Amino acid sequence: xxxxxxxxxxxxxxxxxxxxxxxxxxxxxxxxxxxxxxxxxxxxxxxxxxxxxxxxxxxxxxxxxxxxxxxxxxxxxxxxxxxxxxxxxxxxxxxxxxxxxxxxxxxxxxxxxxxxxxxxxxxxxxxxxxxxxxxxxxxxxxxxxxxxxxxxxxxxxxxxxxxxxxxxxxxxxxxxxxxxxxxxxxxxxxxxxxxxxxxxxxxxxxxxxxxxxxxxxxxxxxxxxxxxxxxxxxxxxxxxxxxxxxxxxxxxxxxxxxxxxxxxxxxxxxxxxxxxxxxxxxxxxxxxxxxxxxxxxxxxxxxxxxxxxxxxxxxxxxxxxxxxxxxxxxxxxxxxxxxxxxxxxxxxxxxxxxxxxxxxxxxxxxxxxxxxxxxxxxxxxxxxxxxxxxxxxxxxxxxxxxxxxxxxxxxxxxxxxxxxxxxxxxxxxxxxxxxxxxxxxxxxxxxxxxxxxxxxxxxxxxxxxxxxxxxxxxxxxxxxxxxxxx
Length: 486
Ligand code: ARG
Known about the structure:
CATH topology of the largest domain: Fumarase C, Chain A, domain 2
Oligomer: single chain
Bound molecules: arginine
CATH architecture of the largest domain: Up-down Bundle
Number of domains: 3
Strand order of the largest sheet: 1-2
Order of helices and strands: HHHHHHEEHEHEHHEHHEHHHHHHHH
Structural class: mainly alpha
């Protein structure tokens, strides 16, 4: 029997006595969601158990009825957990499937389950419970990902690489510093999800179809039983609200964008032209045609899959933008983007955590590249500033020195003849620079500061790449990870 069949007549050519035949087959197939929403089954059953207990407390069901229904729902819950349920596509969605199974097992008492409830507040409740579970799993995935980043930072974090701006060599930075940037991003991602979790954790049960259930239900008690922090305050809002889906999708899309940026760097770094890292065999693939190939496919797939999560966010916003208040069937379209985006994120976190923890680093290749592109120029300019030259003039003198080095084919500023910088200072229209040029041996003294090590040492501020700062930051990140209850 269709659970909403009472007021309908059979489709043309069907036996009117046959309740199964109310809607046209193609229309039924069009509206069917069981393939997707079967994932809500554990949440649907938990919600039903709490609802039945609430009906009992309100005196709407007898103790015996409550016991029978809760027993039947618990059995179903166990069968769901064991994967022993066969979903009937004729029954549209997970809610109707489970109620029909309960009827099959318990008989007419199952007909009392849906008292004071609509699928509208039911699905809103289920989806909040599902999303809460998903956030907790994703949080574990983010922590494991951070653990892999911090582990690599502990192993190889003191290697030096060329930090870049505009995709061009800028200043040397420590690998640990670079990796901890991703840890910061992951921590913000965790906090965004935790924030969404806090806001979504209220129970819509008792809102009914839209006006509020027509029974004296203690909504707070039922909410408490389901681990919610409270109840929704407005029944119309409660059945039509999917803001929490948007919030979670926004957090997931941004989190995936972060993973995609890391994936992009891994793809370049593992290119032999860079040669900074080698992706382990287990995370590399070959080519069907080119015997020489060693491809970072998992990283590329993370980068590509991030697109799905961005699409999911825009899909959900698109679903909501034209909806009048209350439940509209459009809302059934919330699940494919939400489930798909969460699955993409969990899978990507897992594969990147493995890839990062098995990554080998070529410290020499990184260090060689860190010295290319005159990356110590700023440190040299700062040395002039410390000796009284205004920064703009110091910038100009060092810029001229870089130009000379380039023309003379000298790869590093520290290898320039000291006389050149002395001449440049002497020719400056800045008096302080000319005075400095007169100091004996000043050229060699200044050039000695233009090394990778003094460049690193100079960035001795909170959040900077000085060796001791990064060592402290790695230790702090490790301590923070260890303090998270898991
Ligand atoms: N399958 C529906 C959904 O996911 C459940 C609620 C249906 N409610 C209704 N009145 N048809 O949104």
